[in-house]
Amino acid sequence: WRFGLETFYTGVQNLPDHTLSHDYFVAGIMVSKAIGNFTIVLNGENLTDTRQTRFEQVVLGPMNNPTFRPIWGPLEGRVVNLVVRMNF
After folding, report:
1. SS3 52
2. DSSP state letter for 36
């Protein structure tokens, strides 16, 4: 078995529109198990489900002429991957 843990903190950022972003914390984990010629890996990213859209809207204005705020944080939320690798 192999285990991995990833965490990081991003502080407040100065944005191009002269405002400040929010600070945020993100965590992830990875578990791996070798079984014969195969390795199975389960990876979870952004388990804290941190998203910029929880702090503010990203798309503004009407649908036919939208404007967008600067992107300063994750947009996708939690992500989980499962990998099966065959070793030769």
Report:
1. helix
2. T
What six digits make up the tokens of 13? 């950022």
DSSP reduced 3-state for 53: helix
Rounded to 5 degrees, what angle do the CA atoms 30, 87, 5 make? 10
Q: How far is CA 72 from the centre of its chain?
A: 12
| pLDDT tens readout for residues 25-67 | 999 999 999 999 999 999 999 999 999 999 999 999 898 999 9
Q: Which residues contact 36 (CB under 8 A, 6 or more apart)?
A: none
10 Å Cβ neighbour count for 30?
A: 16
Cα 34 from Cα 40, distance rounded (Å):
6
- State the pLDDT at residue 17: 86
Helix (H) / strand (E) containing 28: strand 24-35
Q: For all residues of the chain together, what is the average pLDDT?
A: 94
Strand-pairing partners, residue 80, are 44
